[in-house]
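Minutes, project huddle
Topic: does the predicted pose make sense with thymidine-5'-diphosphate bound?
PN asked that the exact inputs be recorded in the minutes so nobody has to dig through chat later. Recorded below.
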Amino acid sequence: MKQRKTVYVCTECDYHYPKALGRCPQCGSYGTFVEEKFDAPEALVKEAEKSPRRGALTGGTAVPITAESAGDEPQRLLTGYSELDRVLGGGIVPGSVVLLSGEPGIGKSTLLTQICGVLSRENRVLYISGEESAHQLRLRAKRLGVASDELYILTETNIDEICAETDRISPDVIIADSIQTLYSDRSQTLQGSISQVRECAGMLANLAKGGGSSVILVGHVNKEGGIAGPKVLEHMVDTVLYFEGDRQQNIRIIRAIKNRYGATNEIGVFEMTDSGLSEVENPSAMLLADRPRGVSGSCAVCVMEGTRPIIAEIQALTTKTTFPSPKRASDGFDLGRLYLLLAVLEKRLGLCFSDMDVYVNVVSGLTLDEPACDAAVALALISSIKDIPVPFDLAAVGELGLAGEVRAVSALERRVKEAARLGFGQIVLPKSSSSGIEAAGIKLIRVGSVYEMLSIFTSPSVQQNKR
Ligand code: TYD
Ligand code: MG
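Predicted holo structure (tokens), as shared on screen:
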């Protein structure tokens, strides 16, 4: 008879405690403790010894790191979508585990079905779904034009049955949609509970590390938008991808939060269409498509998303407030940073926002967290409060300091070139780091302080635009 013990576990942060607590002492969440039963250590060891899948990475003897000849990195599997391959660091590494997370309905299953279509041309792919029936999977695949004899579907949620099937057909790529729907008989808790998720993910990770298959897990998000389930899940996998976007809008952005095989700051941009997700290779052009002309409060900014510069539009609106304390709202830009910029503009330029409601919006649901956006946000705010448009062909980059100085930003030349490529005629940039920058067809407006930025509102082209 196995000895089982009970612990209480916080579903948010995996904190263990012998009693259920109202508030988690580790992460501070309320009402997140659930009861879990686990095998006592001795029983666990015996069980592990019996398990045939034990320790794909354990065991063996220590060897020098140089023992295996360098340069024989296994060839990565290309998904056929360069936007995704770039985020992965150049395709899927055989034997790796990728966790793809995102809100329901954002398009995770759609994306995976589409890449199955490409991968199954040269590899055997197994798509395990615990959420949809085989009929639904077939309908989606048909709609997306995916058909291949090497693409297998399996609607099973018992991890042991799944492992039996993977042993039978030995797929090169295994997709589990989603990890929260799988369960193991060894853990006596409910489907989706922490120990179930941990157990099933561990079994699948062993298939990857031991058998050389690549595994992609779909993970649900919790109510705060983070990845649901134990934090250990993120530690168990090699790459964590996050698929985000606004369900009302069609733009979808995929970004790597963790990547053992590549950089984490790259993003991939997709658009949801009637025939599935299509890549957006030129996101700047798409983001700027509906930009208003001759209206105050709008300024273009060039941000770096990984190695790629992207031009986005920032809008600001300032209106007389009817509240005792004025409202400040921001979508896609950090609210704390907005307060700081308003304070700098008040102090250094004498503008008065204290009786104004202020709204800032980054168009198209993009989230900008680079300090290099400061100059553009400041220009949009000044433009709105003065009701003078920023020239339509002007973009801005630069970080603002508390003294009102415009500070250097990274990758300036690449940003300037992207602005020039998209037809911008002038760009505001920090004086300190702009020497040596050359770009044809774009006027460089070098500014050292927020005060110097005001000059753009008195230039002749602006006066023409003024309504
Ligand atoms: P889905 O991939 O099922 O989302 P997830 O797996 O992340 O929960 O995508 C669901 C949404 O995508 C659904 O609202 C319909 C939409 N969609 C399209 O717009 N076009 C398509 O070709 C497909 C397959 C889905
Ligand atoms: Mg789905």
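Observations noted during the meeting:
- Residues 108-109, 131, 177 surround magnesium ion (ligand 2) (CB under 6 Å).
- The first helix runs from residue 41 to 50.
No decisions taken; revisit at the next huddle.
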